[in-house]
């Protein structure tokens, strides 16, 4: 006789039972995926910059979209821009928006945060900061200590190359004439003629690397840095003095809310200047992740913050004082 085959033959009853069990198994629950598709803010969105003009709030993300809210952050709309990574946003005097794209572009939108358009940006090669002049000009700063300004919506640019292998990380028009830029290794650069000419100022001590800067006027300002460092000047950047940062968190963005300087930082921290110290603004259920943006919600005791993982929310700022 031939050898019996090693293959197993399942009994007919077992096969039928398997079919019955299979028929009773529930289909996978796809409701979570469907709900995620319906959300305006996705889990993969990383908010990198936030700006508001009193009517709408615009959020720049790393994921190729701008997020827009017309109801103080209660709901959001997605505006796809293609392959973009918006790293900074500013509001101009006419309430229009201007933003810089990591991929060598400058984007602009109308006062409703709509009708986005882009222009190519040759210099600086990697843009890191953008602002508007009171006259409506666009100004961009970034790598290799380059500052570029355009008075015609990006058709032509006036480029200033300071000749240093240094990143400029923050740029602000304090008034129509005074412009301040700060950067790597404590670099400070000033203009007193609206950006036509620039001169280097005294360096911020300790090879300071500024994450953000905020000037209240031509004389008083703040810079935030690594490991929660906060410095303050009362003489237009001629001298700088340490301030206490009780949060101990690095503040990635500085902005004004109700006339008071605020910061959005690492570890989900929202900080507020209280006297000469930066203190935590407590809020429910903070998430321990970095905040890439923050902005005031005018007329409300609240600010809006954003970060990775689709984090975008309003935080109350009311105190019991």
From TrEMBL:
Residue ranges constituting the Photosynthesis system II assembly factor Ycf48/Hcf136-like domain according to the UniProt record = 112-208
This protein's UniProt keywords:
Photosynthesis, Photosystem II, Signal
Q: Which Gene3D superfamilies match?
A: YVTN repeat-like/Quinoprotein amine dehydrogenase
Whether Zinc-finger counts among this entry's keywords is no
Q: Where is the signal peptide?
A: 1-27
For this protein, the record's PANTHER family field holds: PHOTOSYSTEM II STABILITY/ASSEMBLY FACTOR HCF136, CHLOROPLASTIC, PHOTOSYSTEM II STABILITY_ASSEMBLY FACTOR HCF136, CHLOROPLASTIC
UniProt name for this protein? YCF48-related protein
What organism is this sequence from? Dechloromonas hankyongensis
């Amino acid at each position: 006789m031939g050898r019996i085959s090693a293959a197993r033959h399942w009994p007919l009853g077992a096969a039928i039972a398997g079919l019955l069990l299979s028929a009773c198994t529930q289909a996978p629950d796809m409701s979570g995926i469907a709900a995620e598709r319906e959300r305006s803010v996705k889990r993969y969105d990383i908010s990198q910059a936030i700006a508001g003009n009193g009517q709408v709030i615009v959020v720049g993300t790393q994921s190729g979209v701008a997020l827009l809210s017309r109801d103080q952050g209660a709901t959001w709309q997605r505006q796809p821009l293609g392959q973009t990574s918006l790293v900074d946003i500013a509001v101009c005097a006419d309430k229009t928006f201007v933003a810089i794209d990591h991929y060598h572009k400058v984007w602009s939108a109308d006062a409703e945060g709509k009708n986005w358009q882009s222009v190519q940006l040759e210099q600086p090669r990697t843009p890191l900061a953008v602002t508007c002049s009171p006259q409506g000009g666009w100004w961009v700063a970034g790598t290799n200590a380059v500052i570029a300004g355009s008075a015609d919506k990006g058709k032509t640019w006036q480029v200033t190359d300071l000749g240093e292998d240094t990143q400029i990380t923050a740029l602000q028009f304090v008034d129509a004439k005074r412009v301040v830029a700060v950067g790597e290794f404590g670099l400070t650069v000033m203009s007193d003629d609206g950006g036509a000419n620039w001169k280097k100022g005294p360096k911020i001590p300790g090879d300071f690397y500024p994450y953000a800067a905020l000037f209240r006027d031509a004389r008083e300002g703040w810079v935030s840095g690594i490991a929660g460092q906060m410095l303050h000047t009362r003489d237009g950047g001629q001298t700088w003095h340490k301030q206490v940062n009780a949060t101990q968190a690095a503040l990635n963005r500085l902005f004004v809310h109700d006339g008071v300087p605020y910061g959005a930082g690492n570890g989900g921290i929202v900080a507020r200047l209280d006297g000469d110290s930066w203190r935590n603004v407590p809020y429910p259920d903070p998430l321990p992740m970095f905040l890439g943006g923050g902005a005031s919600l005018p007329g409300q005791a609240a600010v809006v913050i954003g970060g990775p993982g689709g984090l975008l929310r309003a935080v109350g700022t009311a105190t019991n004082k």
